Amino acid sequence: MPPMRSASSPGPRCPGPLPPLMPANRPSSPAVSRRAALATGMLGLGGFGLADLLRLRAARGESAASPADDPAVIFVWLPGGPPHLDTYDMKPDAPAEVRGAFRPIRTVVAGIEVCELLPRHARVADRFSLIRSVSHDFADHGGGHKRFLTGRAPKEPTGFVNDAPMCGSYVARLRPPRVRGVPGYTALVDGGRAGVDTFSFGAAWMGTSATPWIVEGDPSHPDFRVPGLTLAASLERRIGDRALLSASLDALRREVDAGTGLAAKDDFDARALDMLTSTVAREAFDLSREPDAVRDRYGRHRFGQRALMARRLIEAGSTFVTVVMEHPGGDMPPDCTYNWDSHAVNCHIFNDLVWRAPFYDQAVTALVEDLHQRGLDRRVLLVVTGEFGRTPRLEHQPGTHTKVRQPGRDHWPGAQSILVAGGGTRAGVVVGSTDAVGGYPKDRPLTPNDLWATVFHHLGIDPETTFPDHAGRPMPLLPSGRPIGELLG
Questions:
Q1: Strands 389-390, 411-412: parallel, antiparallel or unpaired by DSSP?
Q2: What's the CA gap between 325 and 344, in Å, rounded?
Q3: Which of 80, 109, 297, 317 could serve as a FRET partner for 279 with CA atoms 20 to 30 Å apart?
Q4: What local confidence, expressed as pLDDT, does residue 249 receive?
Q5: Helix ranges (DSSP H) in 317-471
Q6: How far, in whole angstroms, is CA 98 from its chain's centroid?
Q7: Contact yes or no for 453/460 (Cβ under 8 A)
Q8: Among candidates 17, 108, 23, which has minimal Cα distance to 369?
Q9: 94 phi and psi, to 5 degrees?
Q10: Would you call 370 helix, strand, or coil by DSSP?
């Protein structure tokens, strides 16, 4: 993954208690015609913002169907490949060049240990499970992203442009949101990382309507805004006659109330227009609606607030939310790196984990606990993973920034660890194991396809469902893979 540097943002606060919160009832959005949308300049992300629009138009008062029983997924993506040997699959008896600098600690579940840098994980291990035996054959970031996210061996082992759909695209098509105006499939990413091909999130033959609504930026920053849901300042300055604008929007409302449908040239535009004309999305993205204690528990940093936003989107009616955790925010030490790509040339892997792990530990465990406390632990499946693991044997090279010799680990698709929680899956379980140095599966070898088959099982999606590819050939969602039986409740 290409390294990035970041401006400062607030660091984490000490976590407080995590009180349960009740989701609010939110209205749905009506259909709007393309002609009316164009007349008011709303279509597309550069148009009128939701806040201004809603001050000028009356809501139809429709009640959205409750999504309480709909299955959903929060998919936490850790680009670069987190080191399994230094997090969830430690080998304390291995040689020093393998085991690293940290020691495992016991958790509340007998027989499950995690890295000492993850003390919150240790306290909630009875609410998640670990998969330690997933592997594949693609060691490049691009190839690894495409192999993991699509369930297929990519034609090109490098680069991030998909030649098959990211599995979330199937969810977008087969499990659209029941609540109008909320994005069914969303990806939350750092600023400058909004390209659909940055992380191989492309939809390939599923088309643009099956790509995620990508929201970039730092939601912990007080000035954070979701593009498309607020009025652009440049446009606002050009609007001098608010009465004329109000009249135009009144006309729009009348056309909406007449039941005129949207004949959009592209489904993506339709989704954008739905979001612009509904209170649902604005409220879901508005973290100020959360009590301070909840925001503090997640952490006032990118990882934490992005995870909290994912939970809010799921409660609002989203079906699949990808949370990309690269840079946690704040000042990055000079011997650390932007994401999880912990080569020696990029960072001192152990110093990087000392800096990064507390943010990660806080955000992931808050999400696990919150899903349980809010009664979402059966409806919502949480998956936390990267594209591969890291090499068992440490390397030592001069760092690009530090210019001093330091330890790191290279790409390693031979083994990786994945955290799974909720979705009615069994908790406190470890699926599979690796050999004495964490290099390859020792028992219960699995592939990314088995994970995706488990995700589809939770969503009630048949992985043998077919869609035509670019050549018109029927392609199943997954060419192989079975739900992981040890996790099924």
A1: antiparallel
A2: 20
A3: 297
A4: 41
A5: 349-373, 448-459
A6: 30
A7: no
A8: 17
A9: -75, 165
A10: helix
The DSSP letter of residue 16 is -
Q: Which of 321, 293, 290, 318 is nearest to 307 (CA)?
A: 321
**Average pLDDT over all residues of the chain:** 83
Distance of CA 54 to the CA centre of its chain: 29
Residue with tokens 């992005």: 306
Rounded Cα–Cα distance for residues 357 and 336 (Å):
12
Q: What pLDDT score does 235 carry?
A: 42
Calpha distance 441→146 (Å, rounded): 21
pLDDT single digits (tens) 287-324 = 999 999 999 999 999 999 999 999 999 999 999 999 99
For residues 173 and 271, is the Cβ–Cβ distance under 8 A? no
Q: Tell whether the model's pLDDT for residue 276 goes beyond 50.
A: yes
- Distances from the Cα of 222 to the Cαs of 51, 226, 284, 303, in angstroms? 17, 12, 16, 15
- Could you tell me the two tokens for 472? 């018109």
Q: How far apart, in whole angstroms, are the C-alpha atoms of residue 33 and residue 374?
A: 38
Residue 390 CA: distances (Å) to CA of 79, 328, 377, 395: 12, 20, 30, 11
CA 335/CA 398 separation, integer angstroms: 11
Question: What are the residues facing 397 on neighbouring strands?
Answer: 406
pLDDT tens digits, one per residue of 53-64: 333 333 333 333
Tokens of 14: 């000490």
Domains delineated in the chain:
34-63+235-292 (no CATH), 72-220+299-487 (3.40.720.10)
CA distance 200 to 255: 39
State which amino acid sits at residue 482.
Answer: R
Unique residue bearing structure tokens 């990882």: 303
